[in-house]
């Protein structure tokens, strides 16, 4: 007979803290988000946040875990890679506030800058290396892809510039997909 394993109350508390932290960091950025506000959002005592995460820096690190989930582009039509990648990145930005929180924090917090750099280097860099004509250029090309995707995210989700927020998904992809395509596959 197999016993069902009940989730522990600590698991639910930890999940509530992370959810509240992600939302608070996304809304306020690293500097303005407080342990007290996060605890209030999670409906727990601030001491519980400290018990599970130790300090704000460690909580942010846990809340800022993010997987870009970039699909394997090797089997895709070569002339569609920029469009596919732009669509994917747009979907990721719109479905998860964690990356927005990380972007907000990176403006003023060195730890967030390092996390963002690692995120793009470890997750985007290898994909670019596989599809670009010269793998030695992959870091530069991945950096250029990041300029477009991070610039879009900053203007659309953080600064909320009206001309950019007014654009629908297809329009954004039509404008930025060809630019990503060039970064990914143009000859050296």
How are the secondary structure elements laid out?
Elements: H1 9-32, H2 35-42, H3 46-53, H4 56-63, H5 81-95, H6 97-106, H7 110-131, H8 138-158, H9 162-165, H10 169-185
Helix pairs in contact: 1-2, 1-4, 1-6, 2-3, 5-10, 6-7, 7-8, 8-10
Describe it for me?
The protein is mainly alpha-helical and 188 residues long. The chain has helices at residues 9-32, 35-42, 46-53, 56-63, 81-95, 97-106, 110-131, 138-158, 162-165, 169-185. The protein has two domains: 9-63, Homeodomain-like (Arc Repressor Mutant, subunit A); 78-185, Tetracycline Repressor, domain 2 (Orthogonal Bundle). Helices cover 73% and strands 0% of the residues. Helix 1 crosses helix 2, helix 1 (9-32) crosses helix 4 (56-63) and helix 7 crosses helix 8 (138-158). The model has no long low-confidence stretch (mean pLDDT 90).
